[in-house]
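TA notes. Do not distribute before section.
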Amino acid sequence: METWDLYTEFRERTGEEHIRGEALPEGLYHLVVHVWIRNREGKYLISLRSADRPIFPLMWECVGGSVLKGESSQNGAIREVKEEVGIDLSPDAGRIIFSDLRKDSILDVWEFDYDGELRLEHATTNEVKECRWMSVAEIRSLYAEQKLVHTLGYFLNDFSELQPFFNDGMQLVSLPAKYKKKLKAYFYLASRLTAAKKYTEAELNDRLNQWALFGDPATLRREMYNRHLLERTKDGGYYWRTGELPPLDEFIARYV
């Protein structure tokens, strides 16, 4: 019997546990991870779901699943990879690249570096039929052909126009002058914030200054709030990322 911890909309663990398969209590969430495994060639490990999977059979996806009771997000990610594709990942090789608040779950998206062999024969479940290394372009084609699980669409958000404004650490060194690119910059910064987490103004400033090196968190806070990427308390003491982010193209169209 698989059990999960339950969380509030602000990622606070309630102390309650939930049995998989039962309806979640209204207003509570469980923690889910997606894991994108990247090799030195910039390709990602994509797996084909087995034909007997109850949802999305024979569709491509990244590794993913629910975090078990007592697990951290990172430990859940590493366990899911071992179970589904038989690979042992180093905790030091992973980082959260995106998170989201969805209908009944808090989603953490991890990216891990891995250059070893594919070891599907060492998987401890039969959830995956096969796996392959694929380029972003190949993954994009799968999505367009409706062969990729549709909930992974966030992976295809295209920030390539911001490349001249990034350093090697994907930190913005300046804010673009053109309006559309500014919108992409605001969206990018929002996507880096942890979903379902309250930040004090000082904590938010600290995060923004980590990812945008031009030292103007006040402007970024205001612009992200005005475009409904952030919410805040009336006194401005706390900020949080809005609920599920729309696809980047949809967000841009809303404000252009």
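Switch to the second chain here.
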Amino acid sequence: MLRFFAVDTRKLVIFLGAFVAFALLTGCSAKKPEYVVRNYLEAAAENKVAKAAECFALEYAKKEDLVALDEKIDQQHYMIKENGGLETLSLKFIDKNDDIAHVEIEIKFVNGETEKSQLTLIKESKKWKIKLE
């Protein structure tokens, strides 16, 4: 049993290393907070985990942060899928300055359901990124 666990841990570390490297090298190209949120949700809807992860500030992320992010993207994907897909997204700034933005988002799904949530975005290397929380 211990040997099996060690193999799984090794695979997880390799996956997370590749995930972080890809995300740091490509980065989310959006320069406005609203585009970052849209890019994230569209990537999550398509189950493109690496592309969705690009929209997050990962400069100081730890291994457990990346595992939680992977789960969050997966949950977002299934929620979007269960509700028939994304129909509209509205974003309202609660507070914004040069380096940080607090936004309220409202997602309307194809089946008519809506979801409201709040996100914090920060600038990382002059690009807006969703803060890991």
